[in-house]
What we know:
Blueprint lengths: L2 H11 L37 H24 L3 H37 L9
Helix pairs in contact: 1-3, 2-3
Amino acid sequence: xxxxxxxxxxSGMKLKCGHCGQGxxxxxxxxxxxxxxxxxxxxxxxxxxxxxxxxVGFFTMIVFAPIILVLVQSVETILAxxxxxxxxxLVSSLVCLVLLPPVKAILLNLQINYDSGEGTTDK
Length: 123
């Protein structure tokens, strides 16, 4: 992998600007600043849309669905099955909530760096 991409991913994992590596990207849980507080990089030029939610949800589903199914099938009583199911859903939901901001920051940093935008049919 290119060193530049690795640096962008690392800064995204720290929730920092990909341009300067110092400024905080978020002013809320998932709400970006309009500009980087450190280097004044315009953060409105890219839109991550539903990409981060898709990637995080898909990853979590692939990892946790088999675990939840095995947990539910491994216990005997119906109450234990219900508790195992809800515990699995709770843990997978928490994992999604933890992973969503870094994935959103990584995608924003990559979009800004590579000047990507919405796809068009124009040639």
